[in-house]
Amino acid sequence: MAEDNPNNPILSKFAVILAGVASAAVVVTVYHCVVVSCRNRGRQRSDRERLQQLMYQRADQTPSSVDNSAALLMIPAHKYHKGMELAGNDDGVCAVCLSEFEEGEELRTLPECMHSFHVACIDMWLYSHTNCPLCRSNATPSPLLQHGLPESSSGGLTDVVVQSRRL
């Protein structure tokens, strides 16, 4: 019956020890959660930074982006006029942005397949691709177009063989 007495010193010591252990457990748990949260935040930030660095390095190391920017200079832009017949675009729609061509907009027509696109659309596409977004044919001009016709040493005419491909 000693346990029923509220002034029992053993019971009050036990309650104090139990409260102290419980408080210590709560403090340790909160501390652990804070430390883990800070580590994860730092790890996520460093992972994100590493990923961005890899993306920038890949973009810098990609030879196609350099080649494509040079190829873009070889593909001339022209203005669109209503009624203009576009060889590869029967519907007069840019296949990249799906917008109709408007009067006076600048277009690029790819030399191999003759598909036409808005300048900004095809430039963005060709920055990361080397082919036509519609038919996947090579989008860069052929070496003959890039370097011009070869000069003949005799000053006469030069035979040029033109190959056509049908898709």
From TrEMBL:
GO terms for biological process: protein ubiquitination. Residues 94-136 form the RING-type domain. CDD domains: RING-H2_EL5-like (cd16461). One of its GO terms (cellular component) is membrane. It holds the Pfam family zf-RING_2. It catalyses: S-ubiquitinyl-[E2 ubiquitin-conjugating enzyme]-L-cysteine + [acceptor protein]-L-lysine = [E2 ubiquitin-conjugating enzyme]-L-cysteine + N(6)-ubiquitinyl-[acceptor protein]-L-lysine. It is found in: Membrane. The chain crosses the membrane at residues 14-38. It comes from the Eukaryota. Its main location: membrane. It is an enzyme of class 2 (transferase). It is a single-pass membrane protein. Its EC number is 2.3.2.27. Keywords: Membrane, Metal-binding, Transferase, Transmembrane, Transmembrane helix, Ubl conjugation pathway, Zinc, Zinc-finger. InterPro entries: ATL1/ATL16-like, Znf_RING, Znf_RING/FYVE/PHD. One of its GO terms (molecular function) is zinc ion binding. This is RING-type E3 ubiquitin transferase.
